[in-house]
Amino acid sequence: MTDGHNADLAHEPLAPLSLHVPEPEVRPGGKPDFSAVAIPEAGSVRRPPVDENPEAMRDLAFSIIRVLNREGDAVGPWAGALSADDLMQGLRHMMLLRTFDQRMLMAQRQGKTSFYMQHLGEEAVACAFRKALLPGDMNFPTYRQAGLLIAGGYPMVDMMNQIFSNDADPLKGRQLPVMYSARDHGFFSISGNLATQYVQAVGWAMASAIKRDTKIAAAWIGDGSTAENDFHAALVFASTYRAPVILNIVNNQWAISTFQGIARGGSGTFAARGLGFGLPSLRVDGNDYLAVHAVANWAAERARRNIGPTLVEYVTYRVGAHSTSDDPSAYRPKEESEAWPLGDPVIRLKNHLIRIGAWSDERHVQMEAEIRDTVVAAQKEAEAHGTLHSGGRPSMRDMFEGVYETMPAHLKRQRQQAGV
Amino acid sequence: MTRMTMVEAIRSAIDVSMARDDEVVVFGEDVGYFGGVFRCTQGLQQTYGRTRCFDVPINESGIVGVAIGMAAYGLKPCVEIQFADYMYPAYDQITQEAARLRYRSNGQFTCPITIRMPTGGGIFGGQTHSQSPEALFTHVCGLQVVVPSNPYDAKGLLIASIENPDPVIFLEPKRLYNGPFDGHHDRPVTSWAGHLLGEVPSDHYTVPLGKAVVRRPGSAVTVLAYGTMVHVAEAAAQEAGIDAEVVDLRTLLPLDLETIVASVQKTSRCMVVHEATLTSGFGAELVTLVQEHCFYHLEAPVVRVAGWDTPYPHAQEWDYFPGPARVGQALREMMEA
Predict the structure, then answer these.
(1) Tens of pLDDT along B272-316?
(2) Quick one: pLDDT at residue A96?
(3) Cβ-based neighbour number of residue A366 at 10 Å
(4) Alpha-carbon distance A385 to A160, whole Å?
(5) Fewest C-beta in 10 Å: which of A106, A351, B54, B277?
């Protein structure tokens, strides 16, 4: 007789359980090892029609779509959408972003701003994605998609004004540096917490469908933040309402000190998170400008043709620190970025352009110098307005305004009390 | 006694608690191998192993929900929310689950968890790295809310929190982590070295929850403060030349009403200072209690000095932060009233 429990096991001694806590392959002092990252040959992954049944393309969540091979050729079914001029422009955008990062990092060290976050190694993701959008489309970015602004022609000096919190800061000094907002450039206000924007992008896309509009939305998130509830909320809403949205995951391997295995758990890949929701889920080489653009275009076409949402995982590597408050040498080998098997996005696109006869080392050096001059000139202009601790700054009145459309009496009293 | 920063004192409290009690487990974002972005758990994973101190997926409601489940099993989790500003996804788990588990199960399940989170501004953290959400917790029945102002209290209060049989929200003023801060942001930073309360016993001791302390005795006016504002209030009183008595509340819930009432009945004046926004802040509760218990002793209206009712700004941080100038001015006005 048992009390209703499993009678078969009632008399067997049970082995004790143990807790599984994932660890990265290597820590500081160890030899970087990416042998566990399977990298398919460029051109080897098929390109299904955009209206293929998502059930039939589950394999794409476990591979990596790549266009540029080791020799610098663009190969396979995802190649061929961009002209040499487009690619040269893309190279310029990535180099602008990289130079912008270098200058702003230095400015932070010089005390001209409080904080900065760079994109080193990930430039292709946002820069190439931006090329798949149309005016009116809306991005809901994280703090590591400034490439959307640079590639979209947003004035660099305005980005710097925001970073310096000076009197020309479009956000009046209210926001942490790099938390831009640029509605007219399809760039939703960055919050500073994590993942909240992901489900908001789905809502924006649903609104576009409700209003029989033609605009689409793009949601952005990092590998670590996919663990947040809002990520999963976004997937279920996008799936249920077939919202015209592209759900982007930038997997740069590290969430501050936490390796991607902690957020990924047992799902194999981040893209595979989409499968349970019936979403087409693709993985792409995030350091391959051509592959990123081709996949973004494919996903954008699905959204525009009202077929539904697409989940895209960009496989890349965060070469720099998480932010100026972070020191990665405390948790990963210093040489790890050099061992990253997908290389550097700028060098790969440069080599491709040289390979097709559209570029040369000399022209590249010239462009580097020209870009440096452009960025330095913008910085001079921004610094003429002021930096965080010197020159023109947003007024104290700006602090009280914009909480509501019309300032309520209690806030007016406080402003008066503050003497402004 | 050992000289400790507040970070070191917090780390020591967790270390002592883990060594004494195998049921204490520690987890949060970046707290394992790296030891936390403010380094409060540095070395603990190396000492106690990966199943007692570990990194978690970035999911705050997950952190608290898992802690509640572990507590239901019988563990005593001490978890970290990386910034208090990140706690909102966990608010459901904190307010409707952790806080009420004992009550709704009639004690079958309890929730001896400690939720640590850095709070407050003064580091140019902008609106999502500077908030002081204590009133969102003091409004919840079943929670206890602690805010230390120095290394000695931080260690003793944290050990007491971990050992407490009910949930504790442990708010760590991040601007105090590496030194006292009186709000004079334009002066050189000071360290805890040489500060009396930076001398901390290296072994086990507790500072009981629910006990305030008079930091600066005085007879002219009582200033009720906690966290960073204790140091601001002391500096403001000193600089304004006003004989203010500064009471460091240390625990907001349960509140040491006795110490508050004794002080206000002595001085006949009361000011509340907090960094959190004014409207519906914890100051409103304090003012009401003072009014209820000390009305016939008061010679002037009770005054609040607090953060303005705006999101925490970046560039205007020092216009927003209730520093010694604002507190000193309010003290002078109060004495003229």
Answers:
(1) 999 999 999 999 999 999 999 999 999 999 999 999 999 999 999
(2) 98
(3) 11
(4) 10
(5) A106
- Closest in A192, A331, A400 to B127, CB measured: A192
CB contact under 8 A, B315 and A388: yes
Tokens 């760079």 belong to residue: A118
Q: How far is CA B288 from CA A177, B284, B303, in A?
A: 39, 6, 11
**Mean pLDDT along residues B130-136:** 98
CATH 1.20.1260.10 fits B213-336, yes or no: no
What digits encode the pLDDT tens for the residues B187-205?
999 999 989 999 999 999 9
Single pTM value for the model:
0.97
Nearest Cβ partner of A257 from B34, B61, B62? B34
CB A394 to CB B316 under 8 A?
Answer: yes
Close Cβ partners of A384 (under 8 Å, ≥ 6 residues apart): A391
B274 part of the active site:
no
Q: Which amino acid is at A359?
A: W
Do residues B76 and B46 make contact, with C-beta atoms less than 8 angstroms apart?
A: no
Does domain B2-200 fall under CATH 3.40.50.450? My reply is no
- Find chain B residues with C-beta within 8 A of A114's C-beta: 124, 314
Which residue spans of chain B are classified as CATH 3.40.50.970? 2-200
- B171 CA: distance to closest CA in chain A (Å): 19
Q: What does the DSSP assignment read for A9-20?
A: GTTSPPPPP---
| Residue of chain A with shortest Cα separation from B320 | A399
Contact between B316 and A173 using a beta-carbon 8 Å cutoff: yes
| Mean pLDDT value across residues B21-32 | 98
Residues in chain B with CB shorter than 8 Å from the CB of A414 are 278, 308-309
Q: Tell me the H-state helices in chain B.
A: 6-20, 44-48, 60-73, 91-92, 101-104, 134-138, 151-163, 228-240, 257-267, 282-294, 317-320, 324-336
Nearest one of A366, A326, A371 to A103, comparing CA atoms: A371
Q: What does the CA dihedral B307, B310, B312, B318 come to, rounded to 10 degrees? A: -50
Whether residues B314 and A19 touch (CB distance < 8 A) is answered with no
Q: Please give chain A's pLDDT, 420 residues, in tens.
A: 568 888 888 788 999 999 999 999 899 999 999 998 899 999 999 999 999 999 999 999 999 999 999 999 999 999 988 999 999 999 999 999 999 999 999 999 999 999 999 999 999 999 999 999 999 999 999 999 999 999 999 999 999 999 999 999 999 999 999 999 999 999 999 999 999 999 999 999 999 999 999 999 999 999 999 999 999 999 999 999 999 999 999 999 999 999 999 999 999 999 999 999 999 999 999 999 999 999 999 999 999 999 999 999 999 999 999 999 999 999 999 999 999 999 999 999 999 999 999 999 999 999 999 999 999 999 999 999 999 999 999 999 999 999 999 999 999 999 999 999
Residue intervals in chain B for CATH 3.40.50.920: 213-336
B46 touches A: beta carbon within 8 Å: no
Cβ atoms of residues B235 and B185 within 8 Å: no
Closest to A133 (Cα-Cα) out of A292, A311, A335, A343: A292
**Can you list the domains of chain A with their CATH numbers?**
49-388 (3.40.50.970), 393-420 (no CATH)
Residues 100-129 of B with CB under 8 A from A: 124-129
Quote the crossing angle between the two packed helices A123-130 and A345-355, to the nearest 10°.
60
List, in sequence order, every residue forming a beta bridge with A249; answer none if it has no partner.
A221, A313
Residue B283: both structure tokens together: 């100051």
Gap between the Cα atoms of B125 and B131, Å rounded: 9
B313 and chain A in contact, CB less than 8 A: yes
Chain B residues close to A176, C-beta within 8 Å: 124-129, 314
Nearest residue on chain A to B50, alpha-carbon basis: A21
**In whole angstroms, what is the distance from residue B108 CA to residue A63 CA?**
49
